[in-house]
Design brief:
This protein has 14 helices and 13 strands. It is α/β, with parallel strands linked by helices. The strands form two sheets. A seven-stranded parallel β-sheet has the order 3-2-1-4-5-6-7, sandwiched between helices. Strands 10-9-8-11-12-13 form a six-stranded parallel β-sheet, sandwiched between helices. Strand 8, helix 7 and strand 9 form a beta-alpha-beta unit. The longest helix is centred in the first third of the chain and has 26 residues.
Amino acid sequence: MKILVLADYNNVHVESWTNWFANAGHDVFLVYRNEPNGHNIQYHPNIKVFACKGRVFESKSHSGMWRRVDFFLSARKIAKYADKIISQYDIDVVHCHALVYGFVGSFIHNKVPIIFTPLASALIVKAKKNMLYRYAARRIFKKCAVVTGDSKILQQQGYILGAKKDHNYVIQNGVDTINFVSQGATLRQQLGINTDDFVVLTARGNKPVYNQNIIYDAFKIAHAQDNTIRLLTFDNGYTGDGVIILPSMPHADMPKLYRSANIGVSVPSSDSSPRTVYESLLCGVPCIVSDLPWSHEVLGNMVMRTHMDAQQIADCILEMKSNYMDYKQKVLQSKAFLQDTFGYEYNMKRMEIICHAIIQEYDDT
């Protein structure tokens, strides 16, 4: 099977998905727009990678409003480039990852099935507020043959924006269940964490949606009551007693980081199927999460839910510390379920079956 992936180069999900298909013996091609690449991304050597020079506003910023506007204006140019790849290499199926690349895919002229995998933020948040995102979503939903998303809430939002119910699947982005396990090395010694310290990890980014300021306020409340509580966080401008600032690290080191923590906290204002929570759980780390619809789909009582309130989150941290082994055992006992539900192997095999089926359907017509 020859698969053309339209996606950002520096996306860890794209890296993992394409590498899985390459390792499974498929011919994988990646087209991304010519933008600054992320670090620590390693693609399978057999994957053919193409950078399309598609910028319109060359002098503008690579982020924020200009990046989004520029990308939508560049869609036809990138699609034309992709069409050449499709014809040259006789591509069987195109997989568009994220809404902006789905919009690119909507302009492809070759008769080839298109699979669209949107990200939650584009449909659940941006498409509700932004007319351009709504237009892009409706256009690709009309064009694509298959839709895959990582949660039922994302699937439902897709239906509202015009996605068909036929060939519409919930596929998890997947977790590496070989390396994300509860037993193994940690970074506690390197980070100066004492044996008696109770470590709270927040591994999400610094965007406002992730509410890092609320987590920091909750930590200060909890730390004032128990100074053995420490906060592990990537550099987000917050410092103080008990705060440990993490350096940037490759994704391969994340299992060690998760295992360094006692609990994880992830309380964004919107979410769909957060990889950091699933990775934490697979490493045996109990988690406090936002009380959002996605958390009720499959996790049941494996997580503690909270509203985006500093005092309530602080109370959850203190409760987990007081009854830590109960929460820890609950997560460890769910290991088999977590591996089966969120593992790469299971989800990518499902994706492989979907690809073969849609290719066959197109060949038959």
